[in-house]
Amino acid sequence: MRGIKGKVAIVTGGARSIGAAIVRELVLEGASVAIADILTEEGEALARELGSQVLFSETDLRSDEQIERCVDATVKQFGRIDFLINAAASYHDKGFESSRADWAFTFDVNVFGSVVLLQKAHPHLVRSGAGAVVNFSSESAHAAQAKRWVYPCTKAAIEELTRSQALDVAKDNIRVNAVIPGWTWSAPIKKAHAENPEWVEQLAAQFHMSGRIGSAEELARAVLFLCSSDASLITGSMLPVDGGHLALGPQGTLELLPPK
Fold this sequence. Notes:
Blueprint: E1 8-12, H1 17-28, E2 32-37, H2 40-50, E3 54-58, H3 64-78, E4 83-86, H4 100-128, E5 131-136, H5 150-169, E6 174-181, H6 187-195, H7 197-207, H8 216-227, E7 238-241
Parallel strand pairs: 1-2, 1-4, 2-3, 4-5, 5-6, 6-7
Helix pairs in contact: 1-8, 3-4, 4-5, 6-7
């Protein structure tokens, strides 16, 4: 993709799963990456594996000081920041039973941390001249889900945040977009599949036109597209990377007409 080589990205939640796939794809395209994550062992291992193009910065997104330290370390190591990719997320959600503390914790990680990251990195993105931010929404933001209140609300908030951020930083030549993943091979999906593979695969086939769960690499390449100069006219947008999930109604792929 054009406009990736030689650039520098911060990827929150980049130590494993989808975040790690994004880090790998960025490195393959010639970018340097700072992994911002609380998973020290996995983050450091990935940085060692990928070499001098990758820096690990232990970062709790609930801490303004740690976010600022990550930004400073990235600039010290690589000299610039061009992209922010907010892949980190907390799935802490007990639905009706969620306490005020549960709500505060999840919003702090899923929403507020990315806001502070943009504030701290903003001067560097301005100097980039072609900065890009990619947020992570979810199909959960678009439909009622039993026993899930907190996580879907954070993702709905991220979509409105994305639109407002895009408007306010457009004057700085910074674009802000979000991806909307469908079911993607990630830690929660892998856990559910290990417990009941037939059930997970049946639901995946019913809820996706593609009939399957997406790979982390497929999602990562969509993220890179939104960072690239190939997406130079795209901002304030939500890109579904979901195998057609959002285009389906509540019936999924089921045929509702009686057989002839």
